[in-house]
Design brief:
Chain lengths: 303, 303
């Protein structure tokens, strides 16, 4: 099953030429989940060859503009392009009021259902699940209510030991039940034990997205043993005071979080416009957590 | 006196790669007036080498997103960049409510004064003037309340006939009064007639901006004899029905307007995303009004 994330923007609020504010596309089994939606996302999707029509789910972490100012334009264009398929939007409650006010004054009545689920930054909650994935909030520590999101694959089916099944003449029609872990009691009294013919699948993978946060202990629990962690790294450690003042993290702190939670891999992003080159941020993080990469625009990371 | 307009975007609502929604920078005597503010304007200004800090006046024609979705990001960045100089914003009244709601939920208290003047689409009005320019609204005919804007240079000072002044020994200290058209009665009984030493300056130039409109008779009066007319030309004439349905104009209609009002020059823009090449739009307009140009991004037109 495909489980990968594509970076569309990883700059912080102040604009820099050719660096865009935060937006990521998560592809899980060919369903597309948009995570945050900074200004310019439509141009970024065209640039990197993605269709906005494929997005069915949108998750917004908080209401600082560099994380959602591209949303009203995206939703408007979906309407103009004739979309009728619903969009599921998960975001802080006031966003609906902001969007509805803008639709009202542009005299826009969306052709497609915009299904809105308010997200609250009081406790971590399961807010969505389908056959492929579950999504939980991660309450972060920022200047305004802010939640990250944890995407966890659903438990996969068991793996069949096909050679053994064929050698013992087990009919193919039994395979789907065996994959689901069922023991089969046949009419002739014979028993086919699942444990004899299958093994456990790989553990479900998980992707944790921590958009904007002061690095502290409050949000570590849901990150434990995640396959891939995206963590903001707005500043270098030499600007720790500024990071604390603005409720942001340094690259070193992002790496320390990855170590503490036992993440498989770390992506860092939300780079301050002051850094013309990003290598020092990568170097600082990778010295502590070697399996770190920069969340560069256009790059797709397999989770 | 500098009087020129730079195009930052001239695409209509549906995004096309590397074509941006409407925004224009008017430079009048080194003061910068932003006219409409589509999404992505900050990237466009960086791309073409303009500083957002220079913008002191913003005029929004109407509340369709392709004319204002870049504004909240621009105003937010001005705040983040430490601006303290006021911004004067002229726009339909509901825009203030939209902006204030977004500032409230991002916990943003602007460091600079945002001086808001509501603009109403009921009758043409003088809404602003300073030493350089006056600005009047042009009520257009669109699906929602929409005004264009007419920028007219202030009447210039009279031109001095310097050789004659020098030959007759008129003191230089008299020049400023002569430029203003004053006759001088000297203490010795001598009279210096202004008409002997000055001639009229060039007529004030004017720029009319018609963002989105059905082409009809209702808005022609303020356009008469303007130096330069920007008129939307969303479609080719073969799509006249679609233009009428959506309260837009064709390239042919834009040219006919320019002919009827005796414009000095015509810029066309607001191109539909369906046109991969814009030459047919230019050809259609220029066949009727030869002094037509495409409002292409990055180009500066002297008015």
């Amino acid at each position: 099953m495909k489980f990968e994330v594509t970076i569309l923007g990883s700059s912080s609020a102040t604009p820099v030429y050719n660096r865009n504010p935060t937006a990521q596309l998560l592809n899980c089994n060919e369903k597309v989940y948009l995570i945050d939606c900074g200004e310019g996302i439509q141009q970024q999707m065209i640039r990197y060859g993605y269709k906005t029509s494929k997005i069915d789910y949108i998750f917004i972490s908080h209401l600082h503009g560099d994380h959602y100012f591209g949303l009203i334009g995206l939703l408007s264009s979906m309407h103009l392009n004739g979309r009728i398929k619903p969009v599921q939007l998960f975001a802080p409650a006031p966003l609906l009021e902001i969007l509805e006010l803008q639709f009202k004054h542009s005299d826009t009545i969306l052709r497609y259902p915009l299904e809105f689920t308010p997200v609250y930054a009081d406790e971590n909650r399961l807010i969505y699940e389908n056959a492929d994935v579950s999504v939980e909030t991660i309450v972060l520590n920022h200047r305004i209510p802010c939640t990250g999101y944890k995407f966890t694959e659903k438990k996969r089916l068991r793996k069949l030991l096909v050679e053994k099944l064929e050698a013992d003449g087990v009919p193919v029609s039994y395979y789907p039940l065996l994959k689901r872990g069922v023991d089969l009691d046949l009419p002739d009294g014979k028993v086919i034990l699942n444990a004899d013919y299958t093994i456990d699948s790989n553990a479900p993978k998980s992707y944790c997205y921590c958009s904007d946060t002061l690095a502290d202990d409050s949000y570590l629990e849901p990150l434990r043993n995640c396959t891939m962690l995206y963590h903001e790294a707005t500043f270098l450690q030499e600007m720790l005071d500024r990071a604390n003042q603005t409720f942001h993290s340094t690259a070193l702190q992002a790496a320390e979080v990855a170590v503490r939670v036992g993440a498989g891999k770390l992506l860092i992003g939300h780079f301050s416009s002051r850094y013309k080159t990003l290598q020092p941020l990568l170097d600082e993080a990778a010295a502590v957590f070697p399996n770190t990469e920069l969340a560069l625009e256009g790059i797709t990371f397999e989770i």
